[in-house]
Amino acid sequence: MAAPANRKAQAVGAANGRSAGAGGAGRLAAPGAAMLRRSLWLCLCLCSCPARGLRIHEYLYFQVLSPGDIRYIFTATPAKDFGGVFNTRYDQIHLVPADPPEACGELNNGVFIQDQIALVERGGCSFLSKTRVIQEHGGRAVIIADNAYDNDSFYIEMIQDSTRRTADIPALFLLGRDGYMIRRSLEQHGLPWAVISIPVNVTSIPTYEMMQPPWTFW
């Protein structure tokens, strides 16, 4: 199947994040139709969506405030059937890369994740397991980036695993390319975390001020 040009095409993934196609069939939109729908939808939302909306349809937005070289607005997708929602807007909160990145057990930097948001990498255990690890370390939310660093198009639908466990904190899926670029910037600057604002209401931002990652297409 040909890959669509529109980065908003979604793939349906399994609860286990070991590979991009694990446990679920891909559900992809036709390139031309998907791009047209996305363009019409964004135009409509920017013109008519209420300013109070922090989450638009299935997408949630956050902005990196520091480091400055990745001061962009990023798009994530909430987990389908587990985790909480953002009842509070955080104007400034730390986005802390987990150590180890897959966050399938005890964390070496868990003390820094308490009351902050964790950036986790897909793989090694289920999405729900990662979310519970971050919750147990006191994290406010978890952003799980794909482990395919060249993925700038396909969103995985994060679903429950078979353990019947629950999680209370929000869990978001981030494109692999976006996660990689955030981590690379932190490594280059020698920083232990980024500062972000989440959720971001994109309907309140003029289109000419929409700082989008230059490596992806909205």
What does this structure look like?
There is one protein chain. 21% of the residues lie in helices and 22% in strands. It has a domain at 60-209: Glucose Oxidase, domain 1 (3-Layer(bba) Sandwich), CATH 3.50.30. The protein has helices at residues 31-48, 110-113, 127-136, 176-189; strands at residues 10-11, 55-56, 59-66, 73-78, 90-97, 117-121, 141-145, 155-156, 171-174, 194-198. The chain starts with 9 loop residues before the first strand and ends in a 20-residue tail after the last strand. The strands form two sheets. A seven-stranded mixed β-barrel has the order 3-4-9-7-6-5-10. It is α/β, with parallel strands linked by helices and 218 residues long. The chain is globular. It has four helices and ten strands; from the N terminus they run βαββββαβαβββαβ. A hairpin with a 6-residue loop joins strand 3 and strand 4. The model is unreliable at 1-15 and 17-57 (pLDDT under 50). It is found in: Secreted. Keywords: Glycoprotein, Hydrolase, Protease, Secreted, Signal.
The radius of gyration computed from the alpha-carbon positions, rounded to a whole number of angstroms, is 16 Å
Overall, the morphology is globular
Helix content: 10-25%
Can you name the CATH architecture of the domain at 60-209?
Answer: 3-Layer(bba) Sandwich
Largest sheet geometry: 7 strands, mixed, barrel
As a percent range, the share of strand residues is: 15-25%
Order of helices and strands: EHEEEEHEHEEEHE
Q: Which class do the helix and strand fractions yield?
A: alpha/beta
Determine the mean pLDDT: 81
